[in-house]
Amino acid sequence: MYVELAHRVETLWQIAYRRLDIAEPEIRRSIPVWEAGELPAGGAVQREQIERALADPNGAYQRLRRVLDAWTALWFWHLTPDTTTVDGQQIAPPTVAEWIAGLQALLGRNPDSRKRKPSGPTLASTVSWDELDAAEGLELAFAGVTPVADVLRPGLPDLSRREHQARRQRNSVECDRPERHAADSAGAPCDRPRLGLRI
After folding, report:
1. What does the mean pLDDT of the chain come to?
2. Does the residue 185 lie in any domain?
3. Per mean pLDDT, which of 27-36, 94-103, 129-138 is the most reliable?
4. According to the UniProt entry, which residue ranges have a biased composition of type Basic and acidic residues (predicted)?
């Protein structure tokens, strides 16, 4: 079970890494520099396409980010009653079974991954943005991933709780920055919106 999850993380990371690798030269702008000669210009993929793909909650990049947020939430889970209450309901850390079920819903399943050896072309040989879109869609479909909206629905509160904890921790880190202390002391909330993209 753990080996299967590790394979799924590795597969989604290959997709996310390849997407970032393609995005880097594609988004490059051409800026004239004196005596620099010919500088490489950007490609055909527009910035909006890149941002849309990286911000897609059902894409590989955001699924991995959500898993990392959930992992962080486990490490920073508050143990006092006043900090573990959400909407009047006391929340507890997930059990191992809940944790595994949430990861399998986000990352997908691939029970045969231990028996297979990689062969043939990999994502590294996928050269275009459109081919990567198709490869990502097929990979996620074959793995049977659950749409993120369904994973976070009220009937499955576990990931919602972890996401709440991760968001709380991220906000506390934001509030700990020196430039935020003045706003905090004035009583302003410390929850500025974050795009969440790292390009």
Report:
1. 74
2. no
3. 129-138
4. 171-183
- The more confidently predicted of residues 132 and 34 is 132
Total domains in the chain come to 1
- Given a contact cutoff of 8 angstroms between Cβ atoms, the answer to whether 190 and 171 are in contact is yes
Pairing verdict, β 85-86 and 89-90: antiparallel
- Among candidates 111, 140, 194, which has minimal Cα distance to 16? 140
Q: In this structure, what are the phi and psi dihedrals at residue 128, rounded to the nearest 5 degrees?
A: -110, 160
At residue 76, φ and ψ (nearest 5 deg) are: -110, 30
Q: Confidence class of residue 189 from pLDDT cuts 50, 70 and 90? A: very low
Question: Shortest CA distance to 62 belongs to which of 149, 192, 129, 154?
Answer: 149
On whether residue 96 sits in a domain, the answer given is yes
The whole domain housing 46 covers 2-31+38-176
**How far, in Å, CA of 119 to CA of 116, rounded?**
9
Residue 189 lies in a domain: no
Task: Examine the pLDDT at 47 and tell me if it is beyond 80.
Answer: yes
